[in-house]
Design goal:
296 residues; mainly alpha; 13 helices; 4% strand; DUF5685
Length: 296
């Protein structure tokens, strides 16, 4: 879930240090592989992915200029983060392509630059398939379909990424539930903005509404039931793909899912969007992501 998995609890010092090991590691890897600017595009779900497959080893303590020279931690040997830096770049590339497919003017030279860098790590067929699935998503959104059907191309993208980053195997339901959770929460958080800008919104299209207040109680319950079902499957299976940090990743996932469940429920009940959810939506469009409970 792009930008949704964060620390929605007060971490112990050990948990904080462990999380920063991966977060700062990815940030530095983006700088090392692509340049200073790309540090601003750090995707928290990529941080989460890296925690599943890599152990915490030797730390390097440093002072980060981005947080007022406060003490932070990164891996002593950061080379294991390189594949995740490229995954981060692939996700940002996908967001730019999504904007382009929506009609926003993105210069071709930017895509060429991204593709050239991505081909240093991914094979051409992967990039071609990724582009195909994003265009398929756009075509699907042009049709009048059920809510579940809109998320299927996103599911295929998730399956492709899982095959690349979890070659040891994974529960077949994991890419499915992640895709549905992202699509569902995005549709709720971005509803008003999508309607205002006349952008596609899965909930608006599926249920034929222009305001969330127009949803029937049955429709609201269906949205929450889908969220709960996917969340349960996600939390129950996260341990199967976590080779390391099993306790911390399950805690991150559980608290994040609870937080967004409460936010989605509040919005569907007519309440205002939580400030952090608003920050997430705004920052997502810029390639950055929402504030966690503690500032990293």
């Amino acid at each position: 879930m792009y930008g949704y998995i964060s620390i929605y609890f007060t971490p112990t010092e050990e948990e904080r240090k462990s999380y920063l090991y991966y977060y700062c590691g990815l940030c530095h890897s983006l700088k090392e592989n692509f340049g200073e600017f790309y540090r601003l595009t750090t995707v928290k779900e990529v941080v989460f992915f890296s925690m599943l497959n890599n152990p915490v080893e030797s730390f390097n303590e440093f002072r980060c200029p981005y947080v007022g020279l406060k003490k932070r931690f990164k891996p002593e040997n950061n080379s294991f983060m390189t594949p995740y830096a490229y995954l981060n770049l692939l996700i940002i590339y996908g967001k730019l392509l999504d904007y382009k497919l929506e009609g926003k003017p993105i210069p071709k030279k930017i895509f060429n630059k991204f593709e050239t860098k991505l081909l240093e790590h991914f094979d051409p067929m992967t990039i071609k398939e990724y582009n195909h699935l994003l265009m398929k998503q756009q075509k699907v959104e042009e049709q009048n379909l059920d809510l579940d059907d809109y998320a299927k191309p996103s599911q295929e993208i998730m399956e492709m990424l899982f095959e690349k980053f979890f070659p040891q195997g994974y529960p077949a339901t994991m890419p499915v539930v992640i895709a549905y959770l992202i699509y569902l929460v995005d549709s709720v958080y971005d509803f008003d903005k999508d309607i205002k800008k006349r952008n596609f919104n899965a909930i608006a299209s599926s249920f034929g509404v222009k305001k969330l207040e127009e949803l029937t109680q049955d429709q609201k319950e269906r949205i929450l039931f889908t969220y709960d079902l996917c969340s349960k499957e996600f939390v129950e299976n996260i341990g199967e793909i976590a080779n390391f940090n099993k306790y911390l990743v399950k805690k991150l996932a559980t608290f994040s899912l609870i937080y967004h469940r409460n936010s989605v429920t509040k919005i569907l009940d007519g309440g205002k969007k939580d400030e952090r959810a608003t920050n997430h939506s705004r920052a997502n469009k810029k390639g950055r992501f929402q504030k966690p409970i503690f500032k990293i």
